[in-house]
Amino acid sequence: MKVLEKIKTEEFITDLGYQLPARPMYKLLSGCPETLKIREGYQNGSISESEIKDFVQGLLKEFKFDEKFYYDLTLATIAIALEKCYTDFANEYLYDLSKLELTELKIASDIAKVCLMEKEKLPSNSYKYYKNKSEVTEESGIKISILDPKQNIYSKISNQYA
Amino acid sequence: MFEILKMASAQKKSIALDTRLGNPIENEIAPTPSPMNKQKDLKMYHKYILKWGQRIASIGIYNCMGHVWASRRTAIYSEKAQKNILSDDGYTELLLTDNPFPDDLVVYEDKDSDYFLHIGRVMFIMGDEVKILSKWDDSSGEYLHSPEDVPWYNKFPNIRTYYITERK
């Protein structure tokens, strides 16, 4: 079974157990083999951006207002997998998910916020950014926000979790 | 990717809720569990059926903090709100030598990270036996259990469990 399919199964979601607050849930999901496999797959190109996009769109078809979204933890798993991927796609995924103000998928949004905060913790004298997946650049001494600086999302999120 | 959801103007449903010092407590009323969420809760219950007693099956509205601090009316999610309640409501940790009383609270934390995991209410004490009532998350049921019978011990092996009270 493909790893993306695996993280939407009842087995995967039930094995995770009940939902915890965002930070411990983040810790728990960070150690899941599935999270690491998705990250690896995305980084080596065996899982494409369109595949992730289609997969997420498929999940969202089951979204209903005023009903807890069953695939909340599935979206959160993808967020953590993408946290250490420095592409526009990964950043957009995290940013867009973190901005959703929907109780129906609260844990996914909250975990995306934690992921963005973790990205912010990159050492200030060393950072990485990608222009695209295959082009990684590392420089020292200058820090460039990977998101639109106008949005100032990091400071907003940091304040919320302070 | 989340355009459809972004377009939806979500109105957070919350209630007026303050600490004892009158500071507002951020809260959100949790949505109804989906049939799949209900199924998940039932599976968890069956897994622990010899250790847990079910007070109520899968339900939305509140989570563990909403259970103990908002009388089951809403869910409290934020760490900040939790800290404000503990300080504004005058909670103190019981010493190991002190016995908890009904309506004191039990707190579970991950020792490795100090992350708060869960809070439940002490229901009764019979000799050395303490029973806790817990709402595990915002779509679970409520379960009566012993302090050590929590569903995360295999995932967080170093859990710190302690009691807190607002009694002086």
Would you kindly provide a written description of the structure presented here, covering whatever features stand out?
The complex is a heterodimer of chains A (162) and B (168). With 162 residues, chain A is mainly alpha-helical. Chain A has one domain (3-161). Helix content of chain A is 57%, strand content 8%. Chain A is built from 9 helices and 2 strands. In chain A, strand 1 (126-132) and strand 2 (135-140) form a beta hairpin. In chain A, helix 6 (72-83) runs parallel beside helix 8. Chain A starts with a helix and ends with a helix. Chain B has one domain (12-165). Chain B has helices at 3-7, 35-47, 64-69, 79-88; strands at 53-56, 92-93, 105-110, 115-126, 129-135, 142-145, 159-165. The N and C termini of chain B lie far apart (52 Å). At the A-B interface, helix 2, helix 3, helix 5 and helix 7 of A face helix 1, helix 2 and strand 4 of B.
Q: Work out the largest interface and the residue count of each chain.
A: A-B, 41 and 43 residues
Overall, the morphology of chain A is globular
The helix count of chain A comes to 9
Q: Separation of termini of chain A?
A: 40 Å
Number-wise, the strands of chain B total 7
Mean pLDDT of chain B: 94
Strand order of the largest sheet of chain B: 1-6-5-4-3-7-2
> What's the count of strands of chain A?
2
Which descriptors would you attach to this protein?
heterodimer; A: 162 residues; mainly alpha; two-stranded antiparallel sheet; 9 helices; 2 strands; globular; B: 168 residues; alpha+beta; 7-stranded antiparallel beta sheet
